[in-house]
């Protein structure tokens, strides 16, 4: 290990302090309108999730489309109002905040979206886009505004002459840099990053991922980093949670989860990642689809696709429990 | 030699100017071979496929070059003949199965149409064959699924149905353009398995086109790397991955977050972004992003030349080993 480089084993304890975000029993259900028999269908996008995120820690959230990972990120920031559960942000009850208090808390809890084409106003110049949150929260006096904006753009590798340009004049990677600069303007303590590199070409994706790594290492910003790409998450996350049909099925430190996954779904997911020649992983395949999120869950959500399934799996939903130190798994068959 | 493409050039004639999506590409596909074409978005890889099949939409067209398939010149064929080549000679699978399937026809009927057109079976036989093909593509309960409409199938099943349609004409070459891109990881792996299985079973050649180098490397015997309408490197898969020579290929490989590398492994991107095809840099189009570039690279585009056995590279800075 190089002097001055981060010791990965130290990240869990010494570098991270107290719990910044604590989520318990979080559920977000979306009504689907009136059913024809008078019943009301709901989509159980997030169906009971617990987790803690410490200061400066990056929790990676992986799962396939429809698993609820995006909704979880939005629920945590209350862009979508959760149906039930508790969210404590820096000790305070985040779900009860309103008005001015909510705005103040939101400054510290920011979100970066997947699509940098949709998340920037097409009618504003880059300089205005980055200055807007500073103005709204009155963080910088007008006389120092330009200096601060240029400083923020510098942090994300955007040249000063871009401040008078419009988003449509920039590439996807540049736009995502702008979105990050705008987020960074508020000096947040927590960033929910929702598939922030998924829309980018692989050569550009690595550049943006590097910026996020800088936010983690230099600024000590905690992150909930949502992605379907486990390889991307591996590079940035301290811990990884695997989501399936609205629930966490496994959670462990990054290296542990990738080297020794315990849940059959996580194993299948990792086996499905193509490997560049020379390091082929064993092929474990799962067939079929996850159960519909409109149906109330009975038993394990993965039971219908699991090769090891037993009767208990069909009857009882397994809780997410510690099966090894720092390694939680929701599976009846993991001892 | 099953397919031979020579100096293929295809352009779109837009109000803003001429957009050369394919700018002088040559390659061969042998019978039973799987060859991968890799590149980032907008490099023109899909237009290569559409050029081969003469399916480029207006205002684009193939401007010059030769495409010969089983010894026949495809670009000279009358439309009627070309239609027979598509399906019976060359099958194609697109990324968006949902968009490629006809939403108001049952899956079985869409396959039966292909069978009747290309293999001359009667209606009854064609139906039976459709069910057979669906089953061979790993679709459970094929009799039932043949009667389904596309909206009743999941994304993975739709892609299997799409592959079934492409296979129904028993083509010698299957072109698969981003066949797994819109799908979830576990479903992606199933479709990749299916394509491998088809290849073994039917001894068919496959041209697989994707932005995902890892996916293509797992499937293809040989790889071609494309950048701004040109091939910059081609080699056998193992060699290309182990010993990439072109700075772009090297950068691309270094940018992939390979799973299991460990959380502290640095990831290097390539500086800058893929240039706009309407506003390309002079000379080697990669030179503004290349660390090895000098004056020579800005003047003229380097030709694709052999650097080792079965390994070609288009770069002035790569030394040739004979």
Explain the overall architecture.
- The complex is a heterodimer of chains A (335) and B (322).
- Chain A contains 11 helices and 12 strands.
- The two termini of chain A are 35 Å apart.
- Chain A is of the alpha/beta class.
- In chain A, a hairpin with a 5-residue loop joins strand 1 and strand 2.
- The radius of gyration of chain A is 21 Å and the shape is globular.
- Chain B has 322 residues and is of the alpha/beta class.
- Chain B has helices at 45-52, 79-89, 97-100, 107-119, 123-136, 142-146, 155-168, 185-202, 213-219, 237-242, 247-255, 295-299, and strands at residues 3-14, 17-29, 34-38, 60-69, 72-73, 90-93, 173-177, 205-210, 222-227, 230-236, 305-308, 311-313.
- An 8-stranded mixed sheet of chain B has the order 6-7-8-3-9-10-12-11, with helices on both faces. A 4-stranded antiparallel sheet of chain B has the order 2-1-4-5.
- Chain B starts with a strand and ends in a 9-residue tail after the last strand.
- The relative contact order of chain B is 0.14.
- At the A-B interface, helix 6, helix 7, helix 8, helix 9 and helix 10 of A face helix 8, helix 9, helix 10 and helix 11 of B.
Write out key terms for the chains shown.
heterodimer, A: 335 residues, alpha/beta, eight-stranded mixed beta sheet, 30% helix, B: 322 residues, 12 strands, globular
Secondary structural class of chain A: alpha/beta
Extended strand count of chain B: 12
Unreliable segments of chain A (pLDDT under 50, ≥5 consecutive)?
1-15
H/E topology pattern of chain A: HEEEHEEHEHHHEHEHEEHHHEE
Strand-residue proportion of chain B: 15-25%
How do the helices and strands line up, and which of them pair or pack?
The complex is a heterodimer of chains A (335) and B (322).
Chain A: H1 11-15, E1 19-34, E2 40-54, E3 58-62, H2 69-76, E4 84-89, E5 92-93, H3 99-107, E6 109-112, H4 126-136, H5 142-155, H6 172-184, E7 190-194, H7 202-217, E8 222-226, H8 230-236, E9 239-244, E10 247-253, H9 254-259, H10 264-271, H11 311-315, E11 321-324, E12 327-329
Parallel strand pairs in A: 3-8, 3-9, 6-7, 7-8
Antiparallel strand pairs in A: 1-2, 1-4, 4-5, 9-10, 10-12, 11-12
Helix pairs in contact in A: 4-5, 4-6, 5-6
Chain B: E1 3-14, E2 17-29, E3 34-38, H1 45-52, E4 60-69, E5 72-73, H2 79-89, E6 90-93, H3 97-100, H4 107-119, H5 123-136, H6 142-146, H7 155-168, E7 173-177, H8 185-202, E8 205-210, H9 213-219, E9 222-227, E10 230-236, H10 237-242, H11 247-255, H12 295-299, E11 305-308, E12 311-313
Parallel strand pairs in B: 3-8, 3-9, 6-7, 7-8
Antiparallel strand pairs in B: 1-2, 1-4, 4-5, 9-10, 10-12, 11-12
């Amino acid at each position: 290990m190089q002097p001055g480089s981060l010791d990965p084993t130290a990240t869990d304890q010494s570098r991270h302090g107290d719990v910044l975000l604590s989520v318990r029993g979080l559920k977000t259900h979306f009504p689907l309108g009136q059913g024809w028999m008078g019943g009301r269908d709901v989509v159980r996008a997030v169906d009971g999730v617990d987790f803690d995120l410490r200061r400066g820690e990056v929790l990676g959230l992986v799962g396939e489309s429809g698993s609820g990972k995006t909704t979880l990120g939005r629920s945590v920031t209350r862009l979508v109002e959760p149906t039930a559960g508790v969210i404590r942000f820096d000790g305070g009850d985040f779900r009860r905040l309103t008005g001015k208090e909510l705005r103040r808390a939101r400054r510290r809890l920011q979100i970066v979206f997947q699509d940098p084409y949709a998340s920037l106003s097409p009618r504003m110049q880059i300089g205005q886009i980055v200055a807007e949150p500073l103005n709204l929260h009155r963080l910088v006096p007008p006389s120092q505004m330009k200096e601060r904006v240029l400083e923020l753009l510098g942090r994300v590798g955007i040249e000063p002459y871009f401040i008078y340009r419009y988003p449509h004049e920039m590439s996807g990677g540049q736009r995502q840099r702008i979105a990050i600069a705008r987020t960074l303007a508020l000096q947040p303590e927590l960033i929910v990053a929702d598939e922030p590199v998924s829309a980018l070409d692989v050569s550009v994706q690595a550049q943006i991922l590097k910026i996020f790594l800088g936010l983690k290492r230099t600024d000590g910003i905690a992150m909930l980093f949502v992605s379907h790409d486990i390889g991307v998450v591996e590079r940035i996350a301290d811990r990884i949670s695997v989501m399936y049909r609205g629930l966490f099925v496994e959670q462990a430190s990054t290296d542990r989860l990738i080297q020794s996954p315990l849940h059959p779904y996580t194993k299948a997911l990792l086996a499905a990642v193509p490997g560049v020649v020379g390091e082929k992983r064993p092929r474990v395949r799962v067939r079929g689809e996850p159960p519909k999120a409109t149906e109330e869950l009975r038993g394990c959500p993965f039971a219908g696709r699991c090769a090891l399934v037993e009767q208990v799996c069909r009857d009882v939903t397994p809780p997410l429990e510690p099966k090894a130190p720092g390694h939680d798994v929701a599976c009846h068959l993991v001892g | 030699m099953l397919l031979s493409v020579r100096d293929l050039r295809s352009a779109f004639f837009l109000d803003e100017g001429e957009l050369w999506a394919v700018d002088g590409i040559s390659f061969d596909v042998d019978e039973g071979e799987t060859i991968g074409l890799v590149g980032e978005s907008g490099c023109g890889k899909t237009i290569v496929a559409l050029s081969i099949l003469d399916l480029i939409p207006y205002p684009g067209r193939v401007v010059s070059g030769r495409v010969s398939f089983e010894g026949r010149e495809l670009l000279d064929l009358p439309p009627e003949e070309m239609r027979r080549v598509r399906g019976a000679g060359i099958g194609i699978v697109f990324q968006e199965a949902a968009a490629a399937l006809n939403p108001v026809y049952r899956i079985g009927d869409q396959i039966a149409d292909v069978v009747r057109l290309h293999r001359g079976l009667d209606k009854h036989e064609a139906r039976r064959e459709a069910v057979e093909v669906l089953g061979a593509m790993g679709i459970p309960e094929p009799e039932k699924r043949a009667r389904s409409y596309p909206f009743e199938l999941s994304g993975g099943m739709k892609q299997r149905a799409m592959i079934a349609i492409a296979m129904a004409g028993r083509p010698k070459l299957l072109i698969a353009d981003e066949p797994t891109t819109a799908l979830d990881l576990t479903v992606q792996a199933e479709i990749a398995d299916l394509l491998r299985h088809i290849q073994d079973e039917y001894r068919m050649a496959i041209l697989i086109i994707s932005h995902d180098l890892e996916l293509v490397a797992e499937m293809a015997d040989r790889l071609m790397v494309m950048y701004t309408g040109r091939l910059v490197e081609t080699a056998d898969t193992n060699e290309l991955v182990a010993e990439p020579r072109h700075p772009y290929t090297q950068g691309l490989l270094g940018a992939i977050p390979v799973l299991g590398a460990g959380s502290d492994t640095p990831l290097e991107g390539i500086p800058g972004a893929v240039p706009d095809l309407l506003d390309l840099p002079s000379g080697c189009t990669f030179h503004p992003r290349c660390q090895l570039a000098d004056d020579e690279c800005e003047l003229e585009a380097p030709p694709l030349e052999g650097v080792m056995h079965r390994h070609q590279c288009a770069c002035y800075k790569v030394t040739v080993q004979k």
